[in-house]
Specification:
Helix content: over 70%
Number of domains: 1
Structural class: mainly alpha
Order of helices and strands: HH
Largest sheet: none
Oligomer: single chain
Radius of gyration: 13 Å
């Protein structure tokens, strides 16, 4: 159960970063927003796969 809570918090943190970046920098720019969101997801996925995934 602790692992599910950790993953849920990780996803919530990722969503918070995406929404924060969207509102802070890319209000009316669709393609830049999409590119930044994809990059944030890729960085979070790489961090998860490198450090948080169980062996």
């Amino acid at each position: 159960m602790d692992r599910q809570v950790a993953v849920a918090l990780y996803v919530v943190a990722m969503v918070a970063v995406i929404v924060g970046v969207d509102f802070a920098f890319f209000i009316n720019r669709f393609w830049e927003r999409l590119t930044a969101n994809v990059c944030v997801v890729l960085v979070f996925a790489a961090f998860y796969l490198r450090f948080l995934r169980s062996p």
